[in-house]
Write the structure tokens for this entry.
Amino acid sequence: MLAPNSVSMVNDTPTLHCVKCAQPSLLKQGEKAFRCSLCGFVYFHNVAAAVSGVIVCDQQMLLVQRAQRPSKGKLDFPGGFVDYNESNEQALTRELLEELQLPIDNMRYLFSYPNRYLYQDVLYYTSDSFFEIHLTTKPALVLQQDEVSRYLWLDMSTVNANELAFASGQNALRAYLRGNNYDRRGGMTKK
């Protein structure tokens, strides 16, 4: 559900401004396209790419508490949006350094899930890619306080997917535990 007074880029709100002529003239044309009724420019509101690290060490998983909206105070996998001219792997490496001062040199792609991200009253659709990172020891982490308010190492037997901020993270956690044959009652199951 959208917040009061929010703008969904998937509606016909006539107050959307054209990025070319700056007039309030964008009209919906198709599922993700908006055409300017004045200058003819077509804006495509495409999916944004985001990345997350599923970081594990000694049967525990690293989660962070969000310091920003949306979902401020909720748990999340560390990560963020992919910048221009960046691969997913480069973005995750950068995000982990920025948010946690955590250098990584090895990750494995797991899966991706669609997500909805409401930021400053605009609803963005994202494609969230998840990467597994195994650590042999738990590092000392330094938080970027404006992004992350704290971090937690949680036992995989106690982590609850419903406590995560976004549906994509909830789906990723469930899939990760299932894919590793993890028994939520306390350990790995035999294949």
Summary: The longest strand covers residues 122-134. Helices lie at 88-100, 167-179. The longest helix spans residues 88-100.
